[in-house]
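Module 6 notes. Inverse folding takes a fixed backbone as the condition and produces residue identities as the prediction. Think of it as a translation problem where the source language is geometry and the target language is the twenty amino acids. Below is one complete input and output pair. Work through it position by position during the lab.
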């Protein structure tokens, strides 16, 4: 399994629901696109294991046309445990696939 570590800003989606995301750095996104299995119907969402601080969670990353990268949702439970708020730069460890 491929793993990545990076710093990125946590941001709040402006629509309904209060979803918070991190946009993956472009160099990480390009590596993930490169690693995507050939023959899949276009690289869409991908299963990942994410970690910030002491908290790990299973989720998916989603392609984002606006940034040309992927978005990682950061659950409310994770934000609560790690005392995170939109606008903060956080350290993310990301492993592709559900271990």
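Target side of the pair, the amino acids:
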């Amino acid at each position: 399994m491929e793993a990545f570590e990076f710093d990125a800003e946590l941001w709040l989606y402006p629509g309904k629901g209060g979803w918070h995301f991190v946009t993956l750095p472009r160099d990480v996104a390009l590596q993930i696109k490169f690693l995507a299995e050939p023959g899949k119907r276009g690289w869409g969402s991908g299963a990942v294991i994410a970690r910030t601080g002491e908290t790990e969670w299973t989720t998916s990353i989603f392609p984002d046309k606006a940034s040309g990268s992927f978005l990682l949702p950061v659950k409310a439970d994770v934000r609560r445990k790690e005392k995170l708020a939109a606008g903060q730069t956080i350290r993310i460890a990301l492993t592709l696939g559900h271990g």
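Reference fact for the lab report: The chain has two helices and six strands.
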